[in-house]
Amino acid sequence: MGAKGKATDKRILDAAEKLFSERGFTAVTMKDICAAAYISRGGLYRHYSSTAIIFKSIIDREQEGAYAALKRAKDGEVSPDKILDVYLEHRMSRILQENFGIDNAISEFAANAENGREIATKRAEDCIKVIEELIRMGNKSGVYNCKDIKATARQICWVIEGMFKHSAIIPVTEKDVENQIKLINKMLK
What we know:
189 residues, single chain, globular, mainly alpha, 9 helices
């Protein structure tokens, strides 16, 4: 794919991710994505044949970013604790957004799309793997002193996912987010 095609693809995924975050997976149509991405129907279908394929591409892009960050930590470009801090800040700040949220859309995707559950499960497993590796590297460098890496990585994912799911029912404040980040950092030390 050339530079123009990559730029169009990015525009489509960015617009679709915003729509899915605002409305959820099941409420977004290809027509909605065309309008939001300023692309013709034919142009969209040259890139993607369904909302499910677009959604999977959004998940793939997110995971590619996570593995790229992990590689930067492994290569010594950025310390693992800094990457984990940025990840936590990014994910937790999204909880405070006043919309449906991409994580809630992922739950819908898992329940409604063909292979959605398998794709969402792989996303969760990849998230845990990346966090485990960052904790392992942090332990090795002396930044962390985490005894049960696997359980801590799972706990971090569960806290984030749980807060997303419940934020639609139980209001989450900035203070709540700050407190959870402090508790996660205590688990790591």
